[in-house]
Amino acid sequence: MSPRAAVMFPGQGAYLPGVLAERARHFPRAVDVLDTIDAVAAEHGLEPVTPLVLERDATPLEDLLAKNSDQLDLAIYAVNATAFEILSGLGLQADVLVGHSFGEFAALSASGAVSVADVAHMACTRTAAFHRADPAEGGLLALDIPAWRAKHLVGLLDDPGLHLAIDNGPGQTVVSGHLAALEAAEEVAVKLGFRATRLRARYAFHNPLLHGAADIFRGATADVPLAKPRTPVFSPVLSRYVRTVDDVREVIGQNMVAPVHFYDALLLLFRTGTSVFVEAGARQALTGIVRSSLPSAALATPLLPSRGDIDGIITSLTEAGFQVSWRRTATGPVPDVTSDSEAVPEARPTASGQETLPGRDGVLVELAELYAQDLGFPVEMLTPDIDLEADLGVDSAKQLALFQRVRTQYGLAEPPAERRVRATTLDKIAELVEEQRR
């Protein structure tokens, strides 16, 4: 019997170039989702998002935010919706769906409350609303403190534009505001000994500053056909289950401006019997929140923590206690891949007698463990895209010393200096490891 499972959908920043490259093609319904979203993008005069999620050398998050942000929400939704179809294709049935920030739209479409095409239209309409309202430039600041402490910090600064935006648990609260307010909050937080990290976002999400854009968005989406969810949905914005069409419309209408009570949602789901949390989206931010916020009896597993193949997904779900049955479809007829809770065999020596080296996902796991141990950060914090210097404050000398350990571990030659200097995330370091091993 499979455990009671919540499927989580991440929001802002949950984008990784080419994350579906070796996965979506095996599932016809996943391909249909991408085709649908591309068709909607064309209706709104946007480029297709499929290349962003299927090509490894697609535009990275930083460049997408700076040069083509209109596609970002659509790309995030495309990954979330496709990930859910992959889960369904593998036979996993969610007991409850929960979205984080913009991820609530994916939770609603996965529940049957709104169609994939209509969510894609809403993602484009949402972007257009920002352009029309033209809110002041703002952003999000993550603090390594619980919500009650962050609330005191916001009160101390007494800036009407600074608000508590997201409660992720005892170890992280996110505040939002205009740039000057965020700078003041960051300065005070650092002086008090807290870690403050700017998140990659252009606007002050979950803040009344966006009421203008939210009003435009609500008016433009008032006629979107909605239905009651067929699968239970818990909304961190509403802090309750979404039961009616009016609830669905309220989630959609409040998503930009209302705070996200994600920690409360996790606690309620865990206390009412949910024991496994599967993250259906790029990276593993929500997985890290579950692991750091809930008791050890709660198991969290990311579906797409990095680029990789379908076998990595099957392994993750198997280790979480799910029975997975799947037939490979993209490469011609092959035997069924049937997985239960048995352990995955360890890598065996190759014909040359040398130990099989780990694949990309395995390298990322090993790198996260190595860097976490040396730097003193929780391993779940070392996501593939986190920037060692910009996000964690690791200076270039320390990065060089750590990379020398990586070279020793994998037996690598010294790479060109310019390549090594540019490898400031674990994903880029793993890419460099792969290049040097060829």
TrEMBL record:
Residues 358-437 form the Carrier domain. One of its GO terms (molecular function) is [acyl-carrier-protein] S-malonyltransferase activity. One of its GO terms (biological process) is antibiotic biosynthetic process. It comes from the Bacteria. Residues 331-358 are annotated as: Disordered. Its EC number is 2.3.1.39. One of its GO terms (cellular component) is cytosol. It catalyses: holo-[ACP] + malonyl-CoA = malonyl-[ACP] + CoA. This is [acyl-carrier-protein] S-malonyltransferase. The gene is fenF.
